[in-house]
Amino acid sequence: MKRRRAEGDADAVANGLRHTKKARPSPRLPRQHQEVRRQLPVFQHRDNIVTAVKTHRTVVLVGETGSGKSTQIPQYLYDAGLASKHKGSSGNGTLSPRTICCTQPRRVAAITVAKRVAEEMGSELGHTCGYSVRFDDQTSPSTRVKYVTDGVLLREAMADPMLKSYSVLILDEAHERSLQTDILFGLVRKLQDKRPNDLRDAAQLRIPGRTHPVQVYYAEESQPDYVDAALMTCLQIHAEEAPGDVLVFLPGREDIDNLALLLRDWLAKLHREALQEAAAVGAVVAETPSAAAAQLQEGLVVKVFAALPQEQQLLAFTPAPPNTRKFVLATNIAETSITISGVRYVIDCGLVKQRSVVAGAGMEALKVVPVSKSQAQQRAGRAGREAPGACYRIYTESTFLALAQSTPPEIERVDLSQVVLQLKVIGIDKVDQFDFVSPPSPTALIAALESLYLLGTLDAAGDLTPHGRRIAQLPLAPTFSHLLLASAEPAFECTAEVLAAVSCLSADNVFFTPTDQEERACATASHRAFASADGDLPCLAGIFEAYKANMHKGQGGVWCKQHYLNARSLARALDIRSQLATILRRLGGDPESSCGAEVQRLLRCIAKGLSLQVAVRQPAVSVAVGGQSSARCYRTVRGGKEVYLHPTSCLFGKNPPPRCLVYAEVLQTSKQYMKCVTAVDPAWLTELAPQVFRKQSAATAPAAANSCAPRLK
Q1: Domains plus CATH for the chain?
Q2: Domain Helicase ATP-binding: where (predicted)?
Q3: What average pLDDT does range 116-125 have in this prediction?
């Protein structure tokens, strides 16, 4: 936790977010949950925390899970006057507002914690207490306690490296070692050196948690299908154990959706059978013993993962109705960042989805990998937050003992292009000399510089180009910012289409998959009608434009229901488009510029924008590989890695398969799958991205050029 003195007025955030509330007096609301606040372990340490922050530049606070640190410490500092107005150094006597900022690695944590704190402070959300995450800003000029994702604060530092609008910076969940939090530590240390004061250097405090014993159970043998094993464990708990909610940890959204579908069907079937059996013997649900009658409870299945719309995420935090057991299916987002009340049972599949660089391939992939021991222990601890609980690990004890002790920091395994670009914008030219918590390898930094150079954001000397400064103003990955800016070029003029596709990618999955099997078949047929022969990006653009047209007729929701599309996701995409359009106008672009029926302009633009993410089809052989003919096997131009079309792509099954593709991301499970692909003519690549590809004969696909990447400096 870092403290520094505020100075001057708050600068505008550089991520295109807009304030959703105008400045007006914060309405007086009753302060809620006050008795609960006094019972939290952190309450006994309140005075020590405030004193330490007031007298030290840096306070390292180690708080156990369940201590209340994330919700309470910003309030203690606010009540102690550390967010009051302060005379700036401009010399004109102007009083500048000061804000207490608390970062979170994940957007759902920033949102849910801010909502809880607003209730406790008696504030309407967005007034005294608010949050700011990518594409969603619930703050106002009167906000004094602000929860943000670490990525948003890093973008704010691009506009104001001194972070003058904050009096206290709390870098929460630092043990997770997210990439942005690690970078923020280095920036804040640099900031403290520039803002000397008479405070002592550092203090350390420890706050115990409030935990109960958790009984851990292991599988007797390895489970070939962890989704099926999780389903059986859920049903066993529901039939045999006392009331209490169940938290299930799964790697990703696809597993969560599959388990939710199966679990809802089984719970409904078992509940009907239990009621029929109870009725036959004259049993009364309300009078039966808790453990013996657990099967008479209804089951409520809810999901929690990062891309889920906010309204659906909040269902996990709502208490289950009477006589109902809640099953929360979650990714690792529920390990530490959020607290879900009522959980007595945890089911841990022992896997997590991690983003990491594919060595030598110049690309990132989402990989499903084993958790670390510390992650497994965090997961188990979630069952003992409020009462004794149980954790069911659907892997063997020998598997647990073989796990790594901790998870490697993100900075050691992900692409660094975006943070290198941000550091350059902030003014840190010698990125290899930056004060990293854990320095990345020179290889990783050089790869990031090479990618930025190939995108035209850096020159050969490693300095920012005008194109690089424009890219940095968009709250997107550099590749997609490059694509969006390319769409405004006279040769393409397809900004409306690219903006629509990128907005859909930034929202949740726009396709809705029903639980009923017959309805699923109807949904599949309906989705197939939107498929584009050119690929997934044109498909998303078409869906978005059709949705927008029906919205103007007042029929958006009905149209989505008819075509099995996620209305919430498309509404979010529409809002994201509006915010990106505002930034594009500021950069001189026209968001309404369209290529119309000239689809080739759009495809050529996509080829240029995603020129670092190209794969070429490999010659077919007679042997089938993993259920797909090897004719569907592709090889990335950069790095030469074998990749396959994801089954959800509208180009999956096309015969013959496209010769050359660009892709949005790679997902690694048993194989590496390209997601959101678009077919392009390989001859375009040497024309549109000569710095990436060298020219070859028309009969062959282009090869990666030998780039002259800027050197570390």
Answers
A1: 2-207 (3.40.50.300), 214-407 (3.40.50.300), 478-600 (no CATH), 608-704 (no CATH)
A2: 50-339
A3: 94
